[in-house]
Amino acid sequence: MWHVHEICYPLDYPTAAGHFPDNPIIPGAVLLDEAIHAIGGAAGVDDFTIRSAKFLDPVRPGETLELRWERRPDGQTAFECRARNPERLVLIGLLQIGLGRL
After folding, report:
1. pLDDT for 6
2. Among 39, 38, 89, 33, residue whose Cα is nearest residue 59
């Protein structure tokens, strides 16, 4: 079963202005941090191991994203993050959360 969380970065998001001047994007670390906290919050845990993360397309301030995740049979949690307009995959990865409770 997939779980879903919406993410929206406002046009004036603070880290975007300096990353990069005249071509603002949301840093990958910010995207990954949001994913980890959303998934962990839903599971009620705050300890994680990032097994993999791949950034596929830049995210701009003002974009709305959909984060989806599901627990796999091996105990890891697969996640993906898609921009809504235009529709595109921006981040994929695998987490080991806590003791594999998610």
Report:
1. 97
2. 89
Q: Which helix (H) or strand (E) holds 79?
A: strand 77-84
Output the CATH code of domain 3-97. 3.10.129.10
Structure tokens at 21: 């001047």
Where do the domains of the chain lie? 3-97
- In sequence order, what DSSP letters do the residues of 16-57 get, joined into one string? HHTSSTTS----HHHHHHHHHHHHHHHHT---EEEEEEEE-S
Residue with tokens 């003002």: 62
The per-residue pLDDT string of the chain (102 residues; one tens digit each, 9 = 90 and over) reads: 899 999 999 999 988 877 787 889 999 999 999 999 999 999 888 888 999 999 999 999 999 999 999 999 988 999 999 999 889 999 999 999 775 444
Q: Which amino acid is at 50?
A: I
